[in-house]
Please model this.
Amino acid sequence: MSFTCLKVEDRGAVGLVQLHRPEALNALNVTVMEELVTCLEQMDAREEIRVIVLAGDDRAFAAGADIKEMADAGHIEMLLRNNIARWDRVRRIGKPIIAAVSGFALGGGCELAMSCDLIVASETAQFGQPEINLGVIPGAGGTQRMTRAVGKSVAMDMILTGRMMSAHEALERGLVARVASKGTWLDEALHLASEIATKSPLALRVAKEAVLKAFETPLAEGLEYERRSFYMLFGSQDQVEGMKAFVEKRAAKFTGR
Ligand code: CAA
Model:
């Protein structure tokens, strides 16, 4: 499938997906979201791709859901359109996804970045959930994921005022994993992705699932899940190779088997 609002390329074992609707600061209309989830699913299915980087451009990761597309919709129409259901497909991607954020990540843009597994931010990045200024609230996970990322008090501050959070504040609060300079943000995200791509794809998938479980299960259940997953990986060739390579003092070559 060719995409009208995405730029997609392989960088070795890293799949780079860039939102490309610059005239609207990459606002997430139905076309962008449908293309994005389709593209992510395609990358998830391709064995040669081990890690995905999702980016925007220098000015914006994404400035939110497309306000113009929903401004005239009523309650029942929004319910019937149920556009946000599409976002559940992002949650089901098994490979690690790094959000590379420069400029605005607002509303649905911030929610999309938080739906990824970790965020690398340019020093220019600005995160926010400004939906309160539109007379609504975040609808694609903002109240839940922001709260889990930065805690109740700061999440309330963000969501009740609609204020923006700088990249450095986001780093300090744990919303982002790394901050890069404005000229290198994408390269740094790709570099990190390439490093992760050298690991066992099986272990990456299981590690991602296990970390995400921490948000959804009580501790005892999460620990049990982790332990079973750890034992399960002893059925993989990658475990044999990883431990053998350690003993032989060489780099492991993981095959995902
Ligand atoms: N939807 C539709 N169009 C948008 C948009 C959005 N979310 N954000 C920006 N645009 C459009 C603008 O309308 C403008 O288009 P025109 O040139 O045709 O007028 C273009 O992008 C450039 O934007 P600005 O001229 O406004 O650029 P700026 O630099 O002056 O301001 C900004 C940048 C502060 C990000 C401002 O555009 C803004 O506040 N955008 C809206 C942010 C927002 O409220 N996001 C939340 C959306 S609701 C949501 O996401 C719900 C959810 O949880 C799923």
